[in-house]
Amino acid sequence: MGDCQESNQKRWAHLRKVLERPGPFSHPEFEPSSEILDFIMTSCKILVIGAGGLGCELLKDLALMGFKQIHVIDMDTIDLSNLNRQFLFRHKDIGSSKAETAAAFINKRIAGCQVTPHFCKIQDYDEAFYKQFHIIVCGLDSIVARRWINGMLVSLLNYEDGILDQQSVIPLVDGGTEGFKGNARVILPGMSACVECTLDLYPPQVNYPLCTIANTPRLPEHCIEYVKVILWPKENPFNTELDGDDTQHISWVYEKSMERALQFNIPGVTYRLVQGVVKHIIPAVASTNAAIAGVCATEVFKIATSCCVPLNNYMVFNDVDGIYTYTYEAEKRRTSTQLLEIKDPDTMKLKQLLELLSESASYQMKSPGLTTIIDGKNKTLYMSTIKSIEERTRDNLNKTLVELGLKDGQDILVADVTSPSTLVIKLKYQTNDVEMT
Amino acid sequence: MEKPRRGQVTRKKASAAQLRITKDINELNLPKTCTTEFPDPDDLLTFKLVICPDEGFYRTGRFVFSFKVGPNYPHEPPKVKCETQVYHPNIDQQGNVCLNILREDWKPVLTINSIVYGLQYLFLEPNPEDPLNKEAAEVLTNNRRLFEQNVQKAIRGGYVGGTYFERCLK
Q1: Catalytic site residue A211?
Q2: What is the interface pTM, i.e. ipTM, of the complex?
């Protein structure tokens, strides 16, 4: 018992040095205290999104740092090809849930750590789920998923009289790798550049020119793309869309790609290459994952403890040839939700709302197009610029906001030439039960 | 711990693709040769573009393109297919269109409008250098008069070479 306590003391000695003494890199508001370590170990709740290459590293790093309340979410199951770098998985685990297997491994290996797995898509959970976390850290390979979680965290922000409520900000630490390249970034939703602000930075998917694929193939990839893009839709061999995980599909593509390669005398088409091209696989590198996850876990620690100023805010990493890193401040793009007070939604018609947007000094719009979401479905309220839409939304002009199904707090998407991006305008209905004295 | 709820999203937020397409559609600035058709005005992600060129080889025809905008727009370009059978070096019989900004040169700063202008340009200046329909490209390079006749024949409806084209006069 005594020995155990002593080793426990030793185990955290280094963290205590950082957390219980001030230092030259401390955050200006940092107050050294022994309670910070307690916070990490007892109440700080972290969500790790993705239990793949980055996720395994992140879970290991965070658990060994003392974080105990960790949730992990991943919709994927374990594949043989994961085992070289996703070290929480063994051969016997193939086919099992990544999240569940990773959580079980960490919980068994690191005493006291409670990793809770979620074997599902991130889109399966709503605001109530994401709200419970102090920090969210992502190790994803999908831009769609990044944009979704980013949108979720932005939607959780609370503004009071136009001022951001700091309590509603959940920091997002995002890591990404592609072969020998990677990046790590810290996003404070509503405060610093987010995923949408820097959408242009993501490398575009490699797409070969269609005419090259069709007529002048030079690379084995061109032959495979030909089968994927042109031959598959034409012959529709299995009466379904091409599925990169279906071995029958891949075999068919492989066979046809070989035929085409032979015809044009192009060497190098292999089954693995076919799999890689169809599924857009870029070989994953374990060391890149380890480095990026290390940076991300450190940022989570810095944000959770305030012991150091966090990364500001985008780090690129490249170990193709030696090691190169560079950190810069990605700029926030201005997109804002604006409140619009509505006095009487029962009598105010849509056309009056449009007049307001055109005439009020703060908007001065030219030809605003309005859409919204009602019961989870997109609805176009009015758009004057497209004839076929105008004709079928014209009747909405004479309906009141209530008749159109617009509720208090409804978000209206407003597009107009006067603003570089679509504005989100939140309707705020003034309540009628004002005190009458 | 509060039990997470699954599947019941209380307040659905507009997706980033939705925000962007609303802007793109509201600001479509079509040349007078083009019109759009939205089968469902609430769905701005699925629509058709009709091009009736007023000059060039194709000035007598009417050509329909279908647009499908995916959830990853504008990171990924929309999927565009030509629904009208057309005798054109850069469009094949399956409706695949060889336009650089639809594939290798797409960038998120481009808009639906950029694609409309790109497609219109294909009818004004068919490009035999990068063909999808190799036969049409060869004819265009070697015998412009025959190419023009073939285009007219295809637009009026009939066989060009071994391929039957449905009538698409405006």
Answers
A1: yes
A2: 0.83
